[in-house]
Amino acid sequence: MRVAIVGGTGEFGLALARRLHEQGEDVVIGSRDRDRALAAAAEAGVNGAENSAAVEGAELVVIACDADAAVETARSLRDEIGSTPVLCVASRLKTEVPSIAERVAAELDAPVAAGLHTVAARTVGTEQDALVCGDRAEAKEAALAVAGLAVAGDALDAGPLVNARALEGLTGVIVAINKRHKAHAGIRITGLE
User: Fold this and answer.
1) Which of 11, 24, 85, 100 is the most exposed place for a label (fewest CB within 10 A)?
2) Does 96 score more than 90 pLDDT?
3) Per-residue DSSP letters for 10-66?
4) For the sheet containing 112-115, what is the strand order?
5) Burial zone of 38 (CB within 10 Å; 0-12 exposed, 13-18 middle, 19+ buried)
6) In this structure, what are the phi and psi dihedrals at residue 115, rounded to the nearest 5 degrees?
7) Could you tell me if 32 and 64 are in contact, meaning their C-beta atoms sit under 8 angstroms apart?
8) What single-letter DSSP state applies at residue 141?
């Protein structure tokens, strides 16, 4: 799958790019600054481009910018993204209504899923589960496929996009647990067959 990671020059975007590349996926890192994208891409062993060029031909666009930039980035790439499925991984350390993913979806014609909020850059590829939510099958299926590659555990359907409010809020919970215990913990969902 060709995956464009917009905001891929940050710690999480780079970790996700490396992991997906190791899993055999075609990854391109995007940034507003082409040179910054190329430098990050070289570090991760993938392709790099300015954001609008990065999303060309992608089968999934991952919006991995920080929370303050996610909605504006989606808005600025609306035409280039078109109907390509989007996975929004941006979150704050608090629950927001509407969620960042819901606000991104309002800016795009593309189907949007939310997920990977409990996965930190340092825990990409580890034994944990990844949760993904969304309203449209094409975004959710692509997001679940990428989430399944990003972790060594399971990628799980967490329901409709409105659940992004809770998923984004889990970021703060995981950060607090990790800070308190000086750990790099993730989550596992138990009791599933």
Assistant:
1) 24
2) no
3) SHHHHHHHHHHHHTT-EEEEEESSHHHHHHHHHHHTSEEEEHHHHTTT-SEEEE-S-
4) 47-50, 26-31, 2-6, 60-63, 86-88, 112-115, 130-134, 155-157
5) middle
6) 175, 180
7) no
8) H
- The encoded tokens of residue 129 equal 């589960």
Enumerate domains of the chain plus CATH numbers. 2-181 (3.40.50.720)
Which single residue is written with the structure tokens 């067959």?
193
**Under a CB-based contact definition with an 8 Å cutoff, are residues 101 and 112 in contact?**
yes
- Residues 135-167 have pLDDT tens digits of 999 999 999 999 999 999 999 999 999 999 999
Q: From CA 119, how far away is CA 166, in angstroms rounded?
A: 14
Radius of gyration of the chain, Cα coordinates, nearest whole angstrom: 15
- pLDDT score at 94: 76
67: which 2 tokens?
């929370």
DSSP 57: T
d(CA 146, CA 1): 9
